[in-house]
Amino acid sequence: MANGGPVEHGFPHLDTVRASITALYKRLSYDTIQTFATSVAPVDVAFCDTDDLHLGAQRVARELVRHYRLPDARMIVGFREMTHAAHVELAAGPEYFVELNDRFRTHRRDIGAALAHEVMHVYLHRLGLSFPGTRENEILTDTAATYLGAGWLLLDAFREDGASSQKLGYLTPEEFGYVLAKRAQLFDEDPSVWFTSAQAYAAFTEGRARARSDERQPPLTAAAAARHS
How would DSSP label each residue in 129-196? Predict the structure, then answer.
């Protein structure tokens, strides 16, 4: 979690992002991915300062469990001081313990973004889908969350100005935009209407331009092959 520090930009992880989308199709199939045609709605993960912290976090976690179709998984959400944004203990289930950075006690609007990533860890764990190496596996998690309809929250948590910055996840803002654009192409969706961050919209625009420039390259080719197999 970049918090006031420099935010990496551009497309340094694009090969891993493309491999992640291809891996999703190989593991889930085109038909299963089609069941994620509806993204998480802003109203379902809205969190205002007057909401009870723990009850609100549990409510948002349940919504993401529902979105990822993990009906028998229960998320127990707590808060503590840590370097990273969040952490989930990947046990056998059905209960999973998610810890969120204490920062989210006062930045509640971004709790949905942090949980979108952590609940996706549980989803991929149950699928048995992972990449070797921590960074590659985290990029897979960000990519899967975004491609399957919840990662727009992670991009919307990106804010940067002359005095401060915040970014969640391992993808750059432009890479989140790239994956969102790939999803938008598949489902004829416009995620930009959900952004509250002007910087998120700019990153999506740049990512969309990159996605359009490689429409004839993998992973779209792999996705098409999966569709017709």
Answer: ---SSHHHHHHHHHHHHHHTT-THHHHHT-EE-SS-EEE-SSS-HHHHHHHHHHHHHHHT--GGGG--
SS (H, E, C) 121-143: HHHHHHHCCCCCCHHHHHHHHHH
Query: Helix 173-187 vs helix 14-28: angle between axes, to the nearest 10 degrees?
Result: 40
CA distance 198 to 203: 9
Pairing of the two strands 74-80 and 95-101: parallel
Q: Which of 35, 20, 122, 117 is nearest to 74 (CA)?
A: 122
> 89: Cβ–Cβ under 8 A, 6 or more apart, which residues?
96, 97, 98
Encode pLDDT of 72-110 as tens digits: 889 999 999 988 889 998 877 799 999 999 999 988 989
Contact 200, 155 (CB under 8 A): yes
Closest CA to 19 of 139, 194, 134: 139
- Asked if 80 and 105 count as a contact pair (C-beta separation under 8 A), the reply is no
Q: Which two tokens stand for residue 139?
A: 């990029």
CA 165 to chain CA mean position, Å: 19
Structure letter (DSSP) for residue 203: H
Gyration radius (Cα) of the chain, Å = 16
Length of the chain: 229
Q: Strand, helix or coil at 64?
A: helix
Give the pTM. 0.90
